[in-house]
Amino acid sequence: MASIDPRASELPSAHEPASLLDVAIGFVQNLRLLVLFPIVVGLAALAVTYALPRTYTATARLLPPQVQQSAATALANQLGALAGLAAGGAGIKSPVDTYAAILKSRTLADRLLARFKLREVYGVELDHDARAELVRRTRISAGRDGLIVIDVDDHDAKRAAELANGYVNELREFTQTLAVTEAGQRRLFFEKQLQRTRDDLAKSEVALRESGINEAALKAVPQSALEALARLKAQITAQEVKLGAMRAFMTEANPEYRQVQHELAALRAELAKAELVDTGKAKGAGAEYIAKFRDFKYHETLFELIAKQYEIARLDEAREGAVIQVVDAAIAPERSSKPRRTFTSVMAALGAFVVALMVVLFRRSLRTASRDPETAQKLERLRLSYRLGKKKQ
């Protein structure tokens, strides 16, 4: 009697689809591989996690200064175009993103390296490597709720909390030297303009003093008219600077941009008429004196306008500059965040089960395919090719 392969009864024909019972039989026959292998891998992964050092995560949450424009808005009615220049040229849309970017800066990282001696802590020789390790262990995120979250990982729970709070402290000190807020940028802008205008005012005053006093010229053109003309020129200057600032973020087709252009053209036309009338009343040296006097009044008026805005911006910056509020100070965590022992062992066991299942299905498909003569012939050819290749080596 011909011998019967005991595995033949397990497998369906090569051209016959496998039933659910066939698959179940295959699983039962490989139950040891499908159960023991994942358990062993999971226990091995658990043992590895116990060998790894614990990592603790400390979290600090802070609320950065918010944009305040109340004082600038109140002055807008008095300064007109000049106030618009400050708001348009120096406004900050998202202070949260700005402060988050500062927290991620190299300068702040270097301050923490020196403060906590992180090169010795991380066991590296270069600041570059210590900085990279600090960045790898730190996560800084800016949420839609307006809060900045600072997460710091470290093998020492106390040091993790100190580093997270160190970010907040260094941010407070560092921002004292920067014009970060809207008021700070307005203050910085007008501080530069004020210095430039002060120098121009001093030069015009010296030029007027050297020319001497011309009583006849002052009688020909009243001083009030000259002051009005100077104020008009100061408004034109402010409008021109505003238009230049608008070019950075607007096209010439923008309605607001075109409106400012029309206003500037109207002011220039008004200035041309006023100059034609006033200078026509004085001749020779009188006209030269009037020009210098008008130039002096122009710089004097412009200086007053910029000085007012500078003082407002300075007061606003003093009020809001240092208000970095700590919502949650970092504390030393009681539990480690890494390694996640249960999660790691379960995922390792699950991965091992998937691998074992694929091995079982692959072996079963090979056994099923080997019963087909054509497939068996191809498999034999593949084995021969492999052996020949091995002999050549």
Task: Please tag this protein with its features.
about 400 residues, alpha+beta, Bacterial polysaccharide co-polymerase-like, four-stranded antiparallel beta sheet, 16 helices, about 70% helix, elongated, disordered N terminus
Question: Can you walk through the features of this model?
Answer:
It is built from 16 helices and 4 strands. It is an alpha+beta fold and 393 residues long. The protein folds into 3 domains: 6-52 and 340-392, no CATH class; 56-181 and 324-328, 2-Layer Sandwich (Bacterial polysaccharide co-polymerase-like); 182-320, no CATH class. A 4-stranded antiparallel β-sheet has the order 2-3-1-4. The longest helix has 36 residues, at 285-320. The chain is elongated. It starts with 19 loop residues before the first helix and ends with a helix. The relative contact order is 0.16. Residues 1-15 and 69-93 have low confidence and may be disordered.
Briefly summarize what is shown.
Helix content is 70%, strand content 6%.
